[in-house]
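step=encode ok
step=design start
structure_in=
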């Protein structure tokens, strides 16, 4: 039965716990309850990392550190955690660029509004 598969159950519980704990962490930081975080991707703690860590741990306990199952889980875990770190870093860099674009666009809009002022209209008529 699938519920007797301890590594699988541990991984799923770890995912659920990591997703749930995002809510109280946000509450402590921003004093706001955001239940939607339980269903969001990204952020900390990483449910991906929690799942592979639970998988590795239970396989090490059940089969030992020298088992091929543990070896597969470790390689899988390294790939997942390394990739998650890279994705988070890239997302942060893209967010910085997008924030700069929004700021520049807002400056452009403010400047463009100034071009439509009556005195600007007179200046452009004479050109």
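sequence_out=
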């Amino acid at each position: 039965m699938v519920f007797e598969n301890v590594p699988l159950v541990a991984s799923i519980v770890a995912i659920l716990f990591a997703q749930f704990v995002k809510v109280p962490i946000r509450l402590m930081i921003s004093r706001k309850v955001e239940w939607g975080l339980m269903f969001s991707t990204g952020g900390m703690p990483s449910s991906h990392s929690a799942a592979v860590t639970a998988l590795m741990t239970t396989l090490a306990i059940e089969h030992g550190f020298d088992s091929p199952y543990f070896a597969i889980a470790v390689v899988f875990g390294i790939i997942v955690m390394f990739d998650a770190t890279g994705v988070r870093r890239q997302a942060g860099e893209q967010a910085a660029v997008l924030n700069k674009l929004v700021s520049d666009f807002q400056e452009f809009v403010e400047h463009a509004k100034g071009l439509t002022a009556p005195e600007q209209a007179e200046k452009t008529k004479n050109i």
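step=design ok
step=annotate ok -> The mean pLDDT is 86.
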